[in-house]
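Morning - pyridoxal-5'-phosphate inputs below, output right after.
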Amino acid sequence: MARLRRSTHGGNVYAVSRDLSRDVRNLIDFSASINPLGPSPRVWQAMADSRHLLAHYPDPDCWELRHTLAKCWHRQPEEIVVGNGSTELIDVLPRALKIRHLLVAHPTFSEYAAAMERAGGRVSAVYAQRTEQYVQPIGDLCQVLDTRRPKSTTIDGVMLCHPNSPTGQACTVDEIRRLADIAQRRGVWVIIDEAFADYCAERSFLSAAVSWPRVVILRSITKFYALPGLRVGYAVAKSAVINALRRQMPPWSVNVMGQAAASAAVNDSGYAQKSVRFMDREREQFGFMLAALPGCLVTPTYANYFFLELPRGWHARELSAQLRSEGVLVRDCSTVPGANSRSIRLAVRSHDENDRLIQALSSLLRQQRS
Ligand SMILES: Cc1ncc(COP(=O)(O)O)c(C=O)c1O
């Protein structure tokens, strides 16, 4: 019998709960970067109001949600497609756009390469440098796209995670414009994954992207709106691109509750403002405390997580396992291409939870040194 593929992502509270015989509510999850404020109160109401729809199939067109999002981004509803999390859209993109050879900047989200593998395509990479605090290597991406190659090795898509996971680094809108210009000239698709961009709205390329026919922006409703269990994400692009994506998607992939909750969440601007204010404050304090841990290196971040390098002598796998045994989950990044064996990613959570993690980390790191 084929073995189940082990999850390479954070957030698997179920496995830890089984292993420790501990309820999920008694775990602290720093491995998935979810808004610690929890869902907007309007979400609960919207879900209660939609109960009668459970006996019907969901709206296959996600009409209301697409209209809500279109209004929010000043785009047409035909320029938006909703998926079962942005993961579903990442999965269908290579087939929908006939991308055979994708360029990525490591270290980055592993699903881009996984989706290409499933679609039978290949991936080439440039690398953000540790010595440059993992700033996004836009110059290198542009250079690769601008280099003439034999037809059989031509790159036809570039994927940019913005802000990047796991590093948290983000480019300026001008840098992305430069990349998009070159890609446009070369006939290359540019996909910008803005799953965490709600935390750095001034760097989002979504509004500017309207002028680039070969740019696709991906957004997630699961992180900023704290709804990962409902699985909703969307893509914004020209309507012909959206139609190509829709043709590859199964019907009804976004359920009734997901559609209702996402519409309510996106319409709650007060929740969005509160979440950004909360994150600005907690991220600064948490970052300050992480940087004070002896021997640890913290990468500057534009997202709701930190990329941390442990002191020499430590392995991320070992530290993650020790914290896991105490019911604290962190993201071990030691196997992420382009990151080293001491790399972990930590979500910014509530003030008390962040304090608890700092205490756990300092006591573990002290033990090792003595
Ligand atoms: C960078 C990035 N993009 C996309 C996703 C997928 O998010 P979702 O499918 O929940 O929308 C994730 C999930 O961890 C992610 O880290």
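Note: The mean pLDDT is 95.

O.
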